[in-house]
DNA sequence: GTCAACATCAACGCTGGAGTTGATTTTGGT
DNA sequence: ACCAAAATCAACTCCAGCGTTGATGTTGAC
């Protein structure tokens, strides 16, 4: 519930009044349950972030060729976005470079998780470069950033409860684009 | 100058004190030149947004096959991001769904521009579906959103003054990925 | 029925940041 | 040298939004 409000208005744009309203209660009542706006936000996000990284790692370390792993990763991330909607998007849409100084410790941790996640993708792609299953015409990090962009940008338009396509279809389409390309 | 501050902190995270400091002056002096924080922001962004859309339209209406146009569009957008850096990113990184009510009129206009831009890309891709030069396995809008994501997400990591690769290289890599795919 | 733990909320304090005002300094034209 | 326009800045006002407190319900165990 509070997550939806954060998703719709962003952290800075959300006041505890907005959340209290959404919950049909009073702002002061909210403080009976949470220590601060920051606490509330972190509590919402905390669990989901780890899950995503763990999935990526298990794909990297699992069976399959590099291209298969890239596909699995894209599809499973999209599936997570839908499953935990809107929790993961709440985090992604926050530009962690823009957080206020007080929130810096937490922001650093989150950036680390993002960084680790991206690294997993880079490693998968680099393995593909090594064994020749993926084109090494460009550096693996740049290819990874492109993929992360495609996927991460869905926070701006994808709502699993309203979209005409499923998260899996989106993931599959993106994987098709990025692996096989759009050329007919 | 002020644009850099907005880029680094986001609209909400930027105070006029931050900007005044960056300019080595006083906040009140700033108000001698601009009517409000909002005015300042719009003034910075106004010009650049139109340019980008115009470029897209001229590519759509120009010579070349659909795949060539997709490539041109991606590369030219990346080039614009670098040329006008950080102005276009300042706008992109603002999630226009999160703006405060007072800013709504302006936000609607900006959303319209974004929408028009995306539409141009969709039209290019649809033309490719028609003439068989691009795969129509997925809807054109979804393929477009993927491309917009790749490109738009660069606001999180690309700084033309620091990056080890040029905007054109990035654009070219993304075009390669999306058209030919990464499969070797 | 009573009491303690649980929960709610009106009313407050406080701070950060937008925008204003008026007095003062700087600049440039004659 | 003089004056008017341009520019600067100290010192305000105002308000939104975070967080607190204490008084007032509500509930469930015995």
Task: Write up this protein.
Chain A is mostly helical. Helix content of chain A is 70%, strand content 0%. Chain A is built from nine helices and no strands. In chain A, helix 4 (37-60) runs antiparallel to helix 5, helix 4 packs across helix 6 (87-93) and helix 7 (104-131) crosses helix 8 (140-152). The radius of gyration of chain A is 18 Å and the shape is elongated. The relative contact order of chain A is 0.12. The model of chain A has no long low-confidence stretch (mean pLDDT 95). Chains A and B meet through helix 1, helix 8 and helix 9 of A and helix 8 and helix 9 of B. The structure holds a DNA duplex (30 and 30 nucleotides).
Count of helical stretches of chain A = 9
Strand content of chain A: under 5%
Helical coverage of chain A, percent range: over 70%
Assembly category: homodimer
Structural class of chain A: mainly alpha
Mean pLDDT across all amino acids of chain A: 95
Series of H and E elements of chain A: HHHHHHHHH
Question: What is the overall silhouette of chain A?
Answer: elongated
Uncertain residue segments of chain A: none
Give the largest interface: A-B, 51 and 51 residues
Could you describe the largest sheet of chain A, including whether it forms a barrel? none
Distance separating the two termini of chain A: 44 Å
């Amino acid at each position: 519930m509070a997550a939806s409000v954060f998703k719709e208005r962003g952290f800075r744009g959300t006041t505890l009044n907005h959340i209290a309203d959404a919950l049909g209660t009073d702002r002061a009542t909210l403080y009976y349950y949470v220590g601060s706006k920051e606490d509330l936000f972190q509590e919402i996000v905390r669990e989901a972030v780890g899950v995503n990284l763990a999935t990526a790692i298990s794909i990297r370390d699992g069976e399959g060729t590099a291209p298969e792993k890239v596909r699995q990763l894209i599809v499973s991330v999209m599936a997570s976005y839908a499953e935990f909607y809107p929790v993961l998007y709440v985090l992604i849409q926050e530009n962690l470079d823009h957080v206020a100084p007080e929130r810096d410790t937490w922001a650093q941790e989150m950036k680390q998780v993002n960084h680790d996640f991206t690294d997993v993708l880079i490693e998968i792609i680099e393995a593909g470069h090594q064994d020749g299953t993926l084109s090494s015409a460009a550096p693996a990090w740049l290819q990874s950033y492109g993929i992360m962009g495609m996927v991460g940008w869905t926070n701006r338009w994808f709502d699993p409860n309203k979209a005409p396509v499923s998260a899996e279809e989106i993931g599959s389409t993106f994987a098709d684009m990025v692996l096989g390309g759009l050329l007919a």
